[in-house]
Amino acid sequence: MKIKTRLVIEVPGYDPRDPAEHRRDFEREFRSTCALYGLTGNVGEAKPHPKRPAAKWNVMTEGHDWGVQTDYRLLRWDDIVREDLTRPAWWKIVQMYRTIGVAIVNGAFRRIMRADWRFAALAFSPLLLITAWILLACFFGLLCMNLVAGMHAPEIVARIVGAVTGLGGFASILWLTEPVTGLLRRSDQAATTDQIANRKRKDIEQRLDALTGAAADAVQKSNADEIMIIGHDLGAVLAIDIVGRALARDPAFGGDERRVVLLTLGANLPVVGFDPEAKWFRSRLRQLAIAPAIDWIDVQSPDDVMNVCPFDPVADPILALEAAERRNPTVVSVRFRDLWQHGSSALRRWRFAWAHAQFLRANERPGAAYDYYLICCGPLDAMTRLTKATGAQ
Predict the structure, then answer these.
(1) What dihedral angle (degrees, nearest 10) is formed by the CA atoms of 349, 353, 354, 359?
(2) Which whole-number Å values give the CA distances from 341 to 79, 245, 362, 390, in the listed order?
(3) Which residues contact 370 (CB under 8 A, 6 or more apart)?
(4) N or C: which end of the chain has fewer CB within 10 A?
(5) What are the structural domains, with CATH classification, of the chain?
(6) What's the CA gap between 77 and 259, in Å, rounded?
(7) 280: Cβ–Cβ under 8 A, 6 or more apart, which residues?
(8) For residue 387, what pLDDT is reported?
(9) pLDDT by residue (tens digit) across 221-241?
(10) CB 273 within 8 A of CB 306
């Protein structure tokens, strides 16, 4: 199916960037894609929605014998993420221990380990690293306490020096390593993911209601040839919930000739789906697995340890789906080595966050079926492009 107009609704992941920053990144990567394929295009300015937590910009893309107008919408919850990031460091650390501990006790971590041990190891690593920093800080504290005691200082003075040195050492190690490890940021996301899974965040629940309204309103008013709702990382969980809420409000959502395509990218669905308390999310998965008017495509990569791959989001026996019932999702596996310049994949795969963001970055080599900016701005519909396309465009 040739596309001339497209509506794209993006649900970002756990990302504090505002729409202006998202738009700048989009334009940079879009320009790279145009240069790679010899296309011409223009990205309009980001405009906030007057009533909804959303923003939009228009994109015009032209190839040799085609042109596509893309209405790009960004559903916003960046303000909530920024507020999360201001939570005290001690709270983040305590919640990280609690979240991982609960996952181990209730069996969710074991199931994630069976699904993809690399993802499980990365998810478990904050507990190991912070524990290592605490032990190292305790060692320095005890060392300083013994040194002061050896100078015949009063015992209380030695203990105070040891405690202050230990706490200062832990804070220093955590601060110095944060740009590399991102432990506090990862602890924040783990805590928020757990709160979403257990429906403990009223602010996020209220925002999801508002985002569902924004998405449903945009879909209803659109005359685009193709409508896509895209979620990346934790945004994939929110996108699934938004589409499910929209279907619950209006069973005809996406039911006309302009089908709604749900595209989940680099999703961490097992983190929520394997939580015994997240029955609502498993109901959403079942709802979308059999939804006749929604085409759901789940894109994964074995080169990204921050997503679970290979993984079928609705194959778990707990859903009790019959083979005849299921029509979603179509699972697509992408090799990032086919998108990157030759010889660069070995090192890039170890830059975990950078590789995880490749789902939203421009390709460096032409011809791959997966290309985010051709999916959003190219002439082929998403299902054809991701499952049947063999050429550049």
Answers:
(1) 90
(2) 36, 41, 12, 19
(3) 299, 332, 334, 339, 363, 386
(4) N
(5) 5-81+202-387 (3.40.50), 88-192 (no CATH)
(6) 26
(7) 199
(8) 87
(9) 888 999 999 999 999 999 999
(10) no
User: How far is the C-alpha of 198 from the C-alpha of 196, rounded, in Å?
Assistant: 5
Residue entry with tokens 């105070």: 160
CA distance 70 to 5: 6
**pLDDT tens-digit series, residues 27-73:** 999 999 999 999 999 999 999 988 899 999 999 999 888 999 999 99
Hey, CA dihedral for 378, 379, 382, 386, is it positive or negative? negative
pLDDT tens for each residue of 293-309: 899 999 999 988 888 88
Task: Please name the amino acid found at residue 157.
Answer: V
Structure tokens at 369: 């079926």
pLDDT at 251: 82
Helix %, strand %, coil % for the chain, to 5? Answer: 55, 15, 30
Cα–Cα distance list, 375 to 40, 80, 378, 391 (Å): 16, 29, 6, 13
Q: Which residue has the tokens 């590399």?
A: 180
12 contacts 72 by C-beta, under 8 angstroms:
no
Q: Which residue carries 């789940």 as its tokens?
A: 298
Q: What are phi and psi of 40, to 5 degrees?
A: -120, 150
* Statement: residue 326 has pLDDT above 90: no
Percentage above 70 pLDDT, the chain: 94
Residue 298: per-residue pLDDT: 95
> Residue 91: CB partners within 8 Å, gap ≥ 6?
none
Answer whether residue 345 shows pLDDT above 70: no
Ramachandran bin of 320, using left for φ above 0, alpha for ψ from -120 to 50, beta for the remaining angles: left
